[in-house]
């Protein structure tokens, strides 16, 4: 692959800031060269989106649906090529790159092709007003109507360069918004292929724009530009707080999906094998680089040792290595810098007094940024390794005595994205779920219902998306009132 170009106003544009190398985290080889946009080019992309909004927001829902559906068709046609690129950029295993990255992107574009046709009006009960200072007696009807927000800046995460941007772009377009997409600097090339698919599908010029850069000022410009009405961001809480401050100055709408430190409460009456299988996905899925992972295990005393032993055996069976190899379960993490950060947390946990049960040493690979699945037991909630998001294949286990203590430990966190409860008593599991301060709770599962609202309490974010909730997130409510 040669030098990539920016996508602005329907044109492929040479970047003002030159190019930078995108590195394959498995081989440390150059995958391609990504464009570095200037602030002026970011503002040009916003201007293009602003200009396109007037006509795009008035297009028939059927037209928007057709474009999204055709884009999904292009992604299906180019499935293998797109998945190979995603794997090279992100280090995902072949199954993940195909099924969870490009595959989920196709599904999301198909879902929001249908979503474009969902009703936007909700009828409200008529109101009977008595005569008074503001008018005669009468009956007033009302509608609540969802309207597009306007220009949306979408800033996407590196862990899934297909599903994450698809989850922003598709519902935003379905609702009649236009977008400026700023992909993660580590793996932006896939997002340009998504733009390519949309262009082939007939998206009008300026409706979708993609600007990238390794420097933070590209994203900052995409947030600060006057023509932006909303910012949709997936990433760290620290960056999200900075974006929120900027949005506050301009009263820009926000959708923030930030960090997580998912608590997994495992009660004595849980099925240990099921709990191990669910929690063990942290070791393998995206190599732990996922904010929804059950990384903070709270185990009741009666099951504690069995659970720790089960997780240790699970970690020991996982093959770490080249994600292109069929037997690989755990691929690399995104960069050398991130590998070093994860290793610093492993070192810190040991210093804090946690007991290392599995992993802890760098895997022996010739090249690439690998971290061994690592398990710590005998942890306490005061440890930084327990409180802070590590974003790698590291699980910490904290014991608890009774239900009240388990709930208190789970809620003693800055985060509240997804928590989990494993128990043979379903009534108790639902009772506990109702007391957890998290945007979602998995009961005896780490599975997701892709129509259920997704988002976080506390510092895990603001707003909800997925399913029809994403259409609501990318719309403003307008009230229309008339005399009956």
From TrEMBL:
Keywords (A to Z) from UniProt: Oxidoreductase
One GO MF term attached to the UniProt entry: oxidoreductase activity, acting on the aldehyde or oxo group of donors, NAD or NADP as acceptor
Domain Aldehyde dehydrogenase residues, every copy: 12-479
Highest taxon of source: Bacteria
Matches recorded under Pfam families: Aldedh
NADP recorded as keyword: no
Family (UniProt): Belongs to the aldehyde dehydrogenase family.
Record's protein name: Aldehyde dehydrogenase family protein
Species classification: Bacteria, Bacillati, Actinomycetota, Actinomycetes, Kitasatosporales
